[in-house]
């Protein structure tokens, strides 16, 4: 067991949407793992707020079942379960109503005791402002408070600004934690270490040596129970505007003055560099959108919804970062549902050697490539060309140097929410998006959305279980390239 962080005061962790899928599938299991590791300070309480008519006992039963469903069996410990349940409470409250808030005030008010209050808003973004206003009216907002905002934060730049303005009217920017769980993945954070703690990559991490970059986040599942939300959002808003652009930023950013860590020093250094990348993206407007983007929809999507729809479930696009390091290097992004396999990868493809040293050899020399795998099997591979063993000349053969975290390290990699929730409690914002980041991402995405709406071109259909629409292959083929690892 890891010793508790004794520098942390007690925390009241309040989840609005406490009976929702996110709370039961990710947040409560994440808090349980921290309880199991002994990292929740004494006196910490977990308060689920929802419209469900549940008392503490019935809510604890619901949470217990969620833990049995979503926590690995070998991590379920009777002592940790008991300790967590003593912290768990429920308050029945309609966040959109003016009634019932006094009960929350009575539950959270601790006179004379230093407490960190975390308000996790796992609800629709149109409730963010009203909830913050109610908390302010009740005197429940102090300098020690933090508010966590789940995506989507608005549906376009204007609505995002309205949401951020409403939250910012109550909370200072340093208190606002806009969460993107991809930034909590071990492999994503290891990307920063790989880049900035190893000197051999830096000289070749630029347009002179990098041919292109591919970022893929593919899912085998459909929209499931998220159909109502997803049909209003689509893949561009749901995945590209946040997850994929954040990954692009981590690949392309300049070395920050300090990445941060447990001490949380210079936490804005990373976010400053990510913002520079977003502002350096070449705008996609008008006919450029037609040439550089692909919209797809899996063929059974309308049947799952129960009505026809033109919402995209697949996006592929070509982006460029117009700065000294990356000018001329294409970044290819793609994401989709009901594809052939579930994977999240970043591929940095290097250029061909400047001179063919083995023109008469057998086999094929392939360009070097660095693959960072976020799922499945977190790790990375460096793809090289090697000599096949044996006499009688040189036979070239592709080979890989691999690092798989599960094989290399004895420790279990924490789930993203485990790390991010503790960062919120500690007040470390490095892995969370700042307002100017969110708005810069919307500013780049919005012309694409507008072009799609103006041209009214329906998404290209693709069969479930495939690599997506063939148009996505043509997007790269026009420049003599192909997607890695997605053979049809």
Automatic annotation (TrEMBL):
Pathway: Carbohydrate degradation; pentose phosphate pathway; D-ribulose 5-phosphate from D-glucose 6-phosphate (oxidative stage): step 1/3. One of its GO terms (cellular component) is cytosol. The keyword Oxidoreductase applies. Its EC number is 1.1.1.49. Substrate binds at residues 181, 185, 219, 238, 337, 342. PROSITE patterns: G6P_DEHYDROGENASE. NADP(+) binds at residues 51, 151. It comes from the Bacteria. Catalyzes the oxidation of glucose 6-phosphate to 6-phosphogluconolactone. This is Glucose-6-phosphate 1-dehydrogenase. It comes from Nocardioides simplex (Arthrobacter simplex). The lineage of its organism: Bacteria, Bacillati, Actinomycetota, Actinomycetes, Propionibacteriales.
């Amino acid at each position: 067991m890891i010793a508790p962080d004794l520098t942390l005061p007690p925390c009241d962790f309040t989840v609005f949407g406490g009976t929702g899928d996110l709370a039961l599938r990710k947040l409560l299991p994440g808090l349980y793992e921290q309880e199991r590791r002994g990292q929740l300070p004494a006196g910490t309480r977990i308060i689920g707020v929802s419209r469900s008519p549940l008392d503490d006992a019935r809510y604890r039963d619901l949470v217990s079942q969620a833990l049995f469903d979503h926590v690995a069996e070998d991590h379920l410990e009777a002592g940790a379960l008991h300790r967590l349940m003593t912290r768990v409470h429920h308050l029945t409250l309609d966040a959109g109503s003016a009634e019932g808030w006094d009960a929350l005030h009575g539950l959270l008010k601790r006179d004379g005791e230093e407490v960190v209050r975390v308000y996790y808003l796992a609800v629709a973004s149109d409730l963010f402002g009203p909830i913050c206003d109610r908390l302010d009216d009740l005197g429940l907002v102090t300098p020690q408070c933090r508010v966590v905002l789940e995506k989507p934060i608005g549906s376009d730049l204007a609505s995002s600004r309205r949401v951020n303005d409403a939250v910012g009217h109550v909370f200072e920017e340093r208190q606002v934690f806009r969460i993107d769980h991809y930034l909590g993945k071990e492999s994503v954070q290891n990307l920063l270490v790989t880049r900035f703690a190893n000197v051999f990559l830096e000289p070749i991490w630029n347009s002179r040596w990098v041919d292109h970059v591919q970022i893929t986040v593919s899912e085998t599942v459909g929209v499931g129970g998220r159909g109502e939300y997803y049909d209003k959002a689509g893949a561009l808003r749901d995945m590209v505007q946040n997850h994929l652009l954040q990954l692009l930023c981590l690949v392309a950013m300049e070395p920050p003055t300090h990445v941060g860590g447990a001490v949380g020093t210079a936490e804005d250094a990373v976010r400053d560099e990510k913002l520079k990348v977003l502002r350096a993206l070449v705008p996609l407007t008008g006919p450029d959108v037609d040439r550089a983007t692909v919209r797809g929809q899996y063929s059974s999507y309308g049947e799952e919804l129960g009505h026809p729809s033109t919402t995209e479930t697949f996006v592929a696009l070509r982006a460029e970062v117009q700065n000294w390091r990356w000018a001329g290097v294409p970044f290819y992004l793609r994401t989709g549902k009901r594809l052939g396999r579930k994977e999240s990868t970043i591929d940095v493809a290097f250029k061909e050697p400047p001179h063919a040293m083995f023109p008469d050899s057998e086999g094929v020399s392939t360009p070097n490539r660095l693959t960072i795998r976020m799922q499945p099997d977190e790790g990375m591979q460096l793809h090289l060309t090697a000599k096949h063993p044996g006499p009688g000349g040189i036979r070239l053969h592709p080979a890989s140097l691999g690092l798989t975290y599960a094989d290399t390290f004895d420790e279990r990699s924490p789930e993203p929410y485990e790390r991010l929730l503790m960062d919120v409690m500690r007040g470390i914002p490095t892995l969370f998006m700042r307002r100017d980041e969110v708005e810069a991402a919307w500013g780049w995405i919005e012309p694409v959305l507008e072009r799609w709406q103006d041209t009214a071109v329906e998404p290209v259909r693709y069969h479930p279980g495939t690599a997506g629409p063939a148009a996505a292959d043509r997007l790269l083929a026009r420049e003599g390239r192909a997607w890695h690892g997605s053979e049809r």
